[in-house]
Amino acid sequence: MIKIKNLTHYYNNDKAIDDISLNINSGEFISFIGESGSGKSTLLSILSTLLKPTSGDVYFNNLNYTDILNIDKFRKENIGFIFQFHYLINYLTVKENIKLANKRVKDEEIKNLLSTLGIENLIDKYPNEISGGQRQRVAIARALINNPKVIFADEPTGNLDSNNSLKVFKLFKKLSKKGTTIIVATHDKNLAKMANKIYELKDGKIDEKII
Ligand code: ADP
Ligand code: ADP
Hints:
By secondary structure, this protein is α/β, with parallel strands linked by helices. Helices cover about 30% and strands about 30% of the residues. The chain has a single domain, classed as Rossmann fold. A hairpin with a 2-residue loop joins strand 1 and strand 2. It is globular and about 45 Å long. The chain binds adenosine-5'-diphosphate (ADP) (2 copies). One adenosine-5'-diphosphate binds near residues 132 and 134.
């Protein structure tokens, strides 16, 4: 589904990604682990179309990223993003925050999704009325509402306790079993183990395939 060919990225003269080639199949759950600075965020930014690489190619179902005509449309139709710091809007309710991703989505669908995440009772709350773990789950709901084909999550549990972190990874597992491709960057080796495949990055290279 995602084909990465000789991907290299420099920030000025610093090489952050060093000639990575990799194929990711539809429905796979992949974890990238590695020390801070190993290139995880840069790789995810490139794969999720947020950053143009210095050289090399990325294909999504054989479509080269450089040939995408309408990037906003492409992202809306295909990609869900989850970051460590979720950007919920404080003056909008949980429901309104989720509607930012899709104006036409029915309340019923939002309720069903929130219920899967165990937070259906929070639908009309404001972000400052709920806990950090609950806010993270709202951000995840917002990433999922359009049924993206692939979800990119960069340190999605960075500000969660271990219990909530595990819940998030269990949800990823469940989604991947239903066919959603999940690509996560994490420094947490234990959580990473819930994926089908783990790749360790070192100095911008895939150092080791662990599973
Ligand atoms: P990780 O996510 O594994 O911590 P990053 O992809 O953030 O790794 O960083 C890889 C390398 O690229 C590091 O050496 C980092 O300092 C550098 N880097 C990351 N972002 C930038 C940036 N915006 N400008 C310059 N250098 C950057
Ligand atoms: P989490 O691990 O999900 O972040 P916390 O330990 O922070 O949860 O909170 C436990 C419970 O306390 C939550 O289920 C939530 O109902 C409540 N809570 C936490 N923070 C807040 C807050 N800022 N405002 C209102 N309720 C909160």
